[in-house]
Design goal:
This protein is mainly beta. Helix content is 10%, strand content 36%. It contains 2 helices and 16 strands. The strands form 3 sheets. Strands 1-12-11-13-9-10 form a 6-stranded antiparallel β-sheet, covered by helices on one side. A hairpin with a 4-residue loop joins strand 14 (186-188) and strand 15.
């Protein structure tokens, strides 16, 4: 399932907590919170790995404010499969960059979320991915091709190589970032869909302008 961001009619933003600092945790809560501010949620997905208290594992920037700092340390788990990356939004548009490149771009960033691994980095699929991997999950992520932003969730369990190939061959993306598996879910008003099964941390939303 692919959702293309339409900057003429939609605002792209990241979300974590409500005005009181309480984690939103669900698409339903996000939609209701936005509605209370006279905003209309069109689409959303989980957007970055998070800890037990729902705080992000890596960088999170919301409305120009750094909520969590960049995480460049080495550890186990998909987040730390270097190269990992940052999806960021500036007044000039969206980008996906390798995490160590982020500080040089941080000045104008409005929203950013760090995750890993990078599915595609400058046209190249992550070198550790194996076509015959038996680790298959419902997975979601974001890709960029010719300034077009694609939000994607697999309709069936796939491995990381298969997920990356879809971004590269079908969507022609030169850059793509993995958000998660297991907890992957979307909210889509147009599709009458809300997949969410568990409480989640950071969310990426498309809000009607």
């Amino acid at each position: 399932t692919v959702r293309q961001y339409d900057p003429q009619h939609e605002k792209l933003a990241l979300f974590l907590n409500d005005d009181t600092g309480k984690p939103l945790n669900s698409f339903g809560n996000l939609a209701a919170w936005l509605a209370s501010q006279h905003q209309h949620l069109l689409f959303a997905m989980n957007a970055g790995m998070y800890q037990e208290n729902f705080s992000p594992v890596g960088l999170l920037v919301l409305e120009g404010k750094t909520v969590k700092k960049l995480n460049l340390r080495d550890a186990k788990g998909n987040f730390y499969l270097k190269p990992n990356g940052v999806f960021l939004v500036t007044p000039q548009g969206a980008k996906i960059v390798e995490s160590s490149r982020y500080p040089s771009l941080a000045k104008d960033v409005l929203f950013a979320t760090q995750s890993g691994p990078l599915l595609i980095n400058q046209g190249t699929i992550h070198p550790i991915f194996k076509p015959d991997s038996t680790s298959r999950l419902i997975r979601n992520g974001v890709g960029i091709a010719d300034n077009k932003v694609y939000l994607v969730i697999s309709d069936k369990p796939v491995n990381l190589y298969e997920f990356a190939i879809f971004f590269k061959q079908t969507l022609q993306c030169d850059h793509a970032l993995y958000f998660d598996g297991v907890v992957s879910a979307i909210y889509s008003e147009a599709l009458h869909r809300d997949d969410q099964q568990v409480l989640i941390g950071p969310m990426l939303g498309l809000v009607e302008k």
